[in-house]
Protein 1
Amino acid sequence: MKILVPVKRVVDFNVKVRVKPDGSGVDLANVKMSMNPFDEIAVEAALRLKEAGKAEEVIVVSIGPAQASEIVRTGLAMGADRGILVKTETTVEPLAVAKILKGVAEREAVNLVILGKQAIDDDCNQTGQMLAALLGWPQGTFASKLEVAGENLEVQREIDGGLQKLMLKLPAIVTTDLRLNEPRYASLPNIMKAKKKPLEEIAADTLGVDVLPRLKVITTTEPAGRVAGQKVASVTELVSKLKTEAGVL
Amino acid sequence: MATLLIADHDNTLINDATRKALSAAQQMGGSVQVLVAGHEAQRAAEAASRLDGVEKILLADAVFYGHGLAEPVADLIVALAPSFDAIVAPSTAFGKNILPRVAALLDVMQVSDVIRVLAPDTFERPIYAGNALQTVQVIDAKKVLTIRTASFDAAADGSAAPIELLSDRGDTGISTFVEETVVKSTRPELSSAKTIVSGGRALGSPEHFTQFIEPVADALGAAMGASRAAVDAGYAPNDWQVGQTGKVVAPDLYVAVGISGAIQHLAGMKDSKVIVAINKDPDAPIFQIADYGLVGDLFEIMPELQKALNASAS
Ligand SMILES: Cc1cc2nc3c(=O)[nH]c(=O)nc-3n(C[C@H](O)[C@H](O)[C@H](O)COP(=O)(O)OP(=O)(O)OC[C@H]3O[C@@H](n4cnc5c(N)ncnc54)[C@H](O)[C@@H]3O)c2cc1C
Ligand SMILES: Nc1ncnc2c1ncn2[C@@H]1O[C@H](COP(=O)(O)O)[C@@H](O)[C@H]1O
C-alpha cells in the first residue's frame, strides 16, 4: 500500500495573528510558520502503518509557495520516503487543493490519503471530504483510531455525543482528529537524512487544474474584543455578582 | 431563493443545531425545504414538519441513511440539488462530514461555519481560531454552507408542513456502519446549553470531574465541558471538548475551572455572554477575557461554590 499525506504550511498554532488595519487580510510578515498540527498527526499515522508492515511507501505533498518545501522536509525528517511540492504563489481554496491532490493521488497510484481534519489558518474542514468526492472513495473523517483489515480500513470517528466505527473499502480517505496519535519529533540525524530524500517540485499551473477562487474575500476584520472584567475576592461575592450584576443566576 | 436544509437528527428528534441552521437559512430569504435522511425516521420527519416556516419535508428512509454515512447521503443531496439555490447544514460533526463532499460533487466551494448572513450570497465566517473574521461572497451559482450554530437562535415550532416521501438513491457499497457509542445524558446538550461548567487539565482525573465539576453543574442546571488537555488526558469524553477543534458554544454563563485560556480554547467560548474563570494563577490568560475572575484553588472553591449556589437557590 502507498499512502499520500497532504501537509499544509500554516501560521504556528502559538501565534496570535493580527488583522491588517486596512481589512485586506491578516499580517503574515515575520510570523512563525509550521506544519498544520493535524497534518503532523496524519504523517505520524502513515508512518505507523508503514512501521506495522501495512504500507510500503509514505509520500508527503504540500501545495503552496517555495517555502512550503520546508514543511515537506519536516515530513521527510519525521520519516516519510518522498516529498512533492506543488508550487503556487496564490491562495488555493480547498476545492482547488482537492483537485490538485486528486491528480497527485492518481499519478502516484496511492491507496490511502491521510489528511488533517482542518487547517488551522482557514479552519475550513473541507479538503479531505472534497478529495473523497472527486475520487469517488469512501471517507473516514475525524478519525481517532485506524486499522487496516485486509482490503478494508476500520476507522473510529469522533462524532457529537460519542464515537462511531465505520468499515471503508480501500482505496480511502482519512482525516485526523487530535486524539489519533501523538506525533513524533524529528531527530537530528533524521533531519540530516531528510535533506537527501527526493523532493520533486511541480508548478501548479502545469497540472491543468482550475484553481481560480470561487469565494471573493471582501474584507477581513478583527472580532469584537472582550475586555477583562473584575477579580472577585470570594465565592460569596461571585455568586452575589452573578445574581445581581450579571443577572445569570 | 430556494434552500435545502439538511437535518441533523437521531431518527426521532430534530436537534437544536438544525433549528439554528434553519434561522440562518431563513435570513437568506425565500423558501426552505428540509431533508430528513434516516432509517425509520418518520418521527424525525414529523418533528421537522413542525419547524416554523418550512415549506416541505423531504423524507428519505433506508438502512444506509440511518447513521449519516457520508457517501450515500451526499449522493442523495446531489440528486436533489438541481431544484435548490442553496444547500445548508449545521456545523455539527454530521454536517461537517457530509457537506464538503456534496460541494465537491457539485463543483462548488463551500463556506464553512457561517456566523452571519449579510446578503443571500455574502457571509461572515471566522478564520484563525476566531482571531479574524472574513466576509466572503460566493461566486458559484449554487451556495453550499455550514452554519455555526452558536451564532443563531433556534427556530421555534409553527404549523405543520407536508412530508414528501422520496425514494432512496441506493447505497454505494464502499462504506459500512459498524457501531456507535453515544452517551445519552439527562443534562442539557453542550452546544445549546444556557450554562456550561468546563474543567481543564488542573482537574487531574475523571473522578475529580465527577467530584468537583458535576455538583456545580447540577446546581446550575448546566452542561459540562472540558479543555482539550482534559480530554486528551482522559478526564472527560471527547465530545465535551470546547474550542477551535471541538465545540463552539455561546451560553449565557460559561464557568472555566482550571483552564489556562489558550487561543484554541477561547475560540470555542469567547462569545459567551458572561464568563467566569477560576484559576490559581492570577496571570492565567483566561482572566483577560473573563467578566468575573476568582483566583484560588479549585479544589477548595468548587465545593464552596456548590454550597453557595444551593443555598441561594433555596
Ligand atoms: C491544533 C490545535 C487545536 C487545539 N484545539 C483545542 C480545542 O479545541 N480546545 C482546547 O481547549 N484546546 C485546544 N488545543 C490545546 C490548547 O492549545 C491548550 O493546550 C489547552 O487548551 C490547554 O488546556 P488547559 O487549559 O486545561 O491546560 P493548561 O494550559 O495546562 O492549564 C491548566 C490551568 O489550570 C490552572 N490550575 C492548576 N491547578 C489548579 C488548581 N488546583 N486550581 C485552580 N487552577 C489550577 C493552571 O494555573 C493553568 O492555568 C489545541 C491545540 C492545537 C495545537
Ligand atoms: N495547501 C495545502 N497543501 C497540502 N495540504 C493541504 C493544503 N490545504 C489543505 N490541505 C490538507 O487538507 C486538510 C484540511 O484543510 P482545510 O480543508 O483547508 O481545513 C489539511 O489538514 C491538509 O492535510
Note: The mean pLDDT of chain A is 96.
Protein 2
Amino acid sequence: MKRRLWHFHGGLRLPGHKTESMQEPIQAANLPRRLTIPLQQHIGEPAEPVVEIGQRVLKGQLLARASEYISVPVHASTSGTVVAIEDRPIPHPSGLQAPCVVIDSDGRDEEIEHTPVNNYTELEPSALRNVIREAGIVGLGGAGFPAFIKLNPGPGNAVDTLILNGAECEPYITCDAMLMQTQPRRIIEGLLIMRHALQARHCIIALENNQPDAWQSLNNALEDDEKTFIELVKVPTIYPTGGEKQLIKVLTGKEVPSHGLPLDIQMVCHNVGTAAAIADTIHEGKPLISRYVTVTGDTVGQPCNLEVRIGTPFEAVLEQCGWRDDRNDEILMGGPLMGFTVDNPAVPVIKTTNCILSWPTTSEQQTPMPCIRCGECARVCPAQLLPQQLYWYARAKNFDRVQDFNLFDCIECGCCAYVCPSHIPLVQYYRFAKTEIWAQERDKKKADQARERHEFRQQRIERKKQEDEERKRRKKEMLKKSQGDETDGEESKKAAIDAAMARARARRGEKTPQSGGKKET
Amino acid sequence: MLEAIIVLAILAVVFGLLLGFAAVRLKVEGDPVVDQIDNILPQTQCGQCTYPGCRPYAEAIAKGEADINQCPPGGEVVIQQLADLLGVDPKPLNEEHGEHGEKTVVVIDENECIGCTLCIQACPVDAILGAPKQMHTVIESECTGCDLCIEPCPVDCIHIVPVPETPQTWKWPAPPQPLEKPPREAGGST
C-alpha cells in the first residue's frame, strides 16, 4: 500500500551538491594528538566535570555528569591524560569560549569495559531511557536536544507514530544518507529500541526520493515481520522537508500546533543517526563519543564522510580531506542555509556537528536594499509566517509585535532570505529578535528576584525598627514603674540581696558539708 | 404620581446602598499604575534616579513628580516601555543621572577586606555575605550592579567587573540597516 503524502507550505528546490561527498566510503578520522571536549554540546544545562587535571582517562570513560534534568553526560573519546579543564573556543556563532575538558591522547585508544543491555525488551522504558541518558545521547540531526527526554511520552500520553527522520534536506550534507546506505541494520535496531521505550504503535522511516541507494539498503535490511509495523517512505526532495514539523505534515497531513510539540498530536520524531547511536549503546554498551560528519565544499580537495571523535579540531578533519589552511576560507558548521560561520578552525567537532563546509570567502557582500514588498518570502515560508512583517518589527525592535506574528514558530530555515531580491539578511533579523527577547526575559526574571529580595530587606529593617522601639518602650515603662513606687522598689531590692546571700551561703554549705550542710537547706 | 416618586426614591436608596457597599468592598489597594511602572523598572535599587529605590521612583512617576527618563540602568528600553504604558512621548535618557552602560557586578577583593560590614548594610538586595571581622563576599547571581556598596567601603576593596558574556547569554547582533532609499542616478528627481 502506498502511503498518501501531503505538502507543506512553500519550500524550495535547491541544487543538492550531495554527490561530491558520496563518492568515497565512510572512513575513520585520524586520531588527533589533543581533543577538546566541551561540557555543553546539547540544549540545556552544561555537564559537571568528574575528572581532575592530570588524571588518565580511558576511551568511553565518563568525563562529566549531567547536572540537571535537561542535561546529558560527556565521555572521553580516546584514552589519554586530562591536561586542562577550562574555557576554550567552541563552535558557536558567537565565537565565544566555554568550559571544556582537554585530553592529550596517548595514541593507544584503550577502551573501558562496556556493559551492554542483554535483553532490552525486559527493561522498563524508564530504565531504558536512563541507559540512553547515561550514554550522553542527544539528537544528532542538528539541534542536540537530549534524546532520553524525547523518548518519554509522559504520563497519560500515547505515541501513535514514531518517525525516523532520514530526510536530509539541506544541500551538501550527506552523513545521514551514508549511514542509511552502509549501516541500515543499526538504524533499524535503534528504531526497535525507541519503539519499545515509547510503546509506539507504528513506525515510519522517511527519506528523500533522491536517495534510492539508501532506500534499497534499508529495504533489504528490514525483515519481513518488521515490515508489518515499520514503513519506509520516500518523500519529495523539497527544502526543508527534514524539518520536524514539515516532515510530519508531509507524512500525515497533520500540523504540530504553534508553541506545541509533535507529542501533542501523538507523534515523536528522531534522527536516523540518533537511532544508530542508541543501538550502539544498548547492544554494545558504547557511549556517544563519535559521529559521522560530512566534510565538503569547494575548497575541500576530497569531499567525504568521516567518523570523527567528539573533540577533534575542525582543521584536523579538514586537512585529512585535502583542505589547506593558507587560503582564508569561510568555514561553516552545518549546511549552507542553517549553518553558521566558524571563525576559528581549531574549534572541536561536537555531538551536533553534522557537516563541515568550506568555501572561498566571498569578498563581495551583497548590500541589502530596501524591501520592495514582493511577497516572495511569504510564498516560500514553510511555517506559513509573514517574514516581511517579522522583518519590519524586528528591525524596529518592536519585540511585542514580532511575537504576535509568531516569531518563535520560525525554524530559521533561510528560505525567505534565499529568495529575497533585495538580499535582506532576514534570518539574521529573526535570530537577533529571538536572542533579544530571551535576554529581556532573563532580565525580567532577575529584576523580579531583586525586587523580592529588596522588599524582604525593607520588611526586615522595618521589623527590627519596631522591635527596637518596643524594647525601648518597655524599658521606659519599667523605669517609670520603679520610680512610681519607691518603697516597693526598696523592698524588692532588699529581697534580692537576701536571696543572693542565701544562695552564697548555700554554696558555701555545699563545699563544706560537715559544717551543717543539712541545716542550711 | 405619588407611587412613581416612592418607587424612584426606593430605587435611589437601594442603588445608593449598593454603590456604597461596592466602594467599600471592592476597594483597590494601592495604585495599580505604580505596580505596572515598578514592573518595568530594572530593580537595581541603585538610586541614580534620586529616589531611594525603584518603587519610590515608580510612585513619583505615577504622581507626575518625576520624569520617565531618569533610570540609567534601564536605558532606552525602559523609557520606551514607560512611554508606551503612560501614553507619553519617549525622550532620551537624562544624562544628569548617569549613562546606560553594560551590565556589571561587584567583587570584593578578599585579601583586602577587613570585615567592617559597612557594605552589607548598604546592599539593597542582601547580596553580600559576611560577619564582623570576617571576610565578606558578593553573591554574584544576586548582585544588581547598583554599586551602592563601593562608597561606604573604607579600604576600597570592592571592584566593578562587567558580567562576562557566555554562549548562553550571547545575543545576535542587529544586522546592518539596509539603505533607506536606493542610490539615485545623477539628475534623478523626486
Note: The beta strands of chain B are 104-108, 128-129, 137-138, 158-162.
